[in-house]
Every structure is written in C-alpha cells, then in structure tokens.
Amino acid sequence: MTEELMLAGSIKNNASAQEELYSRFSPRMLGVCYRFAKNREDAEDMLQEGFIKVFTQLHQYRNEGSLEGWIRRIVVHTCINVLKKNKKFADSVDLIHAKSIHIKEDMIPSIMQAKQVVECIRLLPLGYRTVLNLYAIEGFSHKEIGNLLDIEESTSRSQYTRAKAMLEEILIRKNIIHKPRKNIFGAAASSR
C-alpha cells in the first residue's frame, strides 16, 4: 500500500490502512519511546498513547515534511507529556545548575543508536536522560527543550552537560569507550 493510500484510508478510519500505518512506523517509534521510558512496558504505553494521538490528529498532517517525522514529533511530545505527569521527573529537572564540567565531544560514540549506548543512556537519571535524548538524538534546541519541559534554557544546558559527563563515566566503566591516557603534563595524549 502506498503512503498516500495508507494515509487517506487511515483518515477515513479504514482498519487495514490504520493497521498498515501502525505496523510500518511503530517499530521505529517504539525505539524513540524506549529511550525516554524506564522499561519496555512504559515504552509500549507511551507508544500506544502516541499512536492514539497520531490517529486522532492525522487529518492535520499537511504533507509538509515526511510522515515519519510528523509521527515522531507527536510520539516525542507524548513521551514528554507522560514524563511531565511524573513527580520524579519534575524533581529531577529542577536541579541546581551544573558546575563547569569539561567534556570532549569525541569521547562519546557518534552512533547513539548502538544497543550498548542506548542501555547506558537509560541508566542516567530521568531528567538527564530526557534532555540528552531531546538534544543529542531528537535535535531539539535548548530553548525548545526548555519550553517543552517548562524549565529554563540554562537548566536544559546544565542537564545536558551533566548527562554527557555521567554518560561518559558509565561508558568508561562498562569499557564501551576508553579513558584517554594522560601524559606527564596531565594533558590527554594525542591518538596517532
């Protein structure tokens, strides 16, 4: 079924078109939910809630950009709304701003989809994990994250900085990345 037929059928509440849309996009969207959730069950709940919104708002899709991108945005917003309902989330993003932490971007693997890295991201505290996902993976700006989470832009930046530092420690501890060697002057040795 073409995307156009699937979309038109889904808008008309055609069950087979809706099933096709769900089966085509739900595996990738479950991956999105999984990065925000604490476990698979919560991710599946977020996914279900997200697709309910997708189907009820499908008539608003205007063929501007990809359908997958439009669905992804709804699913991400659904995940955020679910997290915002959780008191622990509100407490975890209201932390005092991070002190100056220096992190080298090249210390964190560039392929954030790797199973080991995703598992390590899920070990981060909820607020850190959420901001890291929104900024580094979903591509939101700190200003957008601040608006989404009802926090200051500077809080988003500090959460991201702390998340990177903690993720780096976890990745080193699990031997996914290696701590840079220091030379006698205390600087990281260059890799040649």
Explain this structure:
It is a single chain. The protein contains 9 helices and no strands. It is mostly helical and 192 residues long. It has 2 domains: 1-85, Orthogonal Bundle (Rna Polymerase Sigma Factor, Chain: A); 87-180, Winged helix-like DNA-binding domain superfamily/Winged helix DNA-binding domain (Arc Repressor Mutant, subunit A). The N and C termini lie far apart (52 Å). Residues 94-113 have low confidence and may be disordered.
Provide a short characterization of the protein structure.
The protein is mainly alpha-helical and 192 residues long. The chain has helices at 3-11, 15-36, 40-57, 67-84, 87-93, 115-121, 126-137, 142-149, 153-173. It folds into two domains: 1-85, Orthogonal Bundle (Rna Polymerase Sigma Factor, Chain: A), CATH 1.10.1740.10; 87-180, Arc Repressor Mutant, subunit A (Orthogonal Bundle), CATH 1.10.10.10.
Please give a handful of descriptors for the protein shown:
192 residues, mainly alpha, Rna Polymerase Sigma Factor, Chain: A, Arc Repressor Mutant, subunit A, 2 domains, 64% helix
Q: For the CA atoms, what is the radius of gyration?
A: 19 Å
Measured as a percent range, the helix fraction is 55-70%
Specify the CATH homologous superfamily of the largest domain: Winged helix-like DNA-binding domain superfamily/Winged helix DNA-binding domain
Specify the structural class.
Answer: mainly alpha
* Beta strands, count: 0
User: What does the overall shape look like?
Assistant: elongated
Q: Beta fraction of the residues?
A: under 5%
- From the 3D structure, determine the CATH topology of the largest domain: Arc Repressor Mutant, subunit A
Number of domains: 2
Mean pLDDT: 81
> CA-to-CA gap between the ends?
52 Å
Tell me what the CATH architecture of the largest domain is. Answer: Orthogonal Bundle
Task: Sketch the major β-sheet.
Answer: none
| Uncertain stretches of 5 or more adjacent residues | 94-113
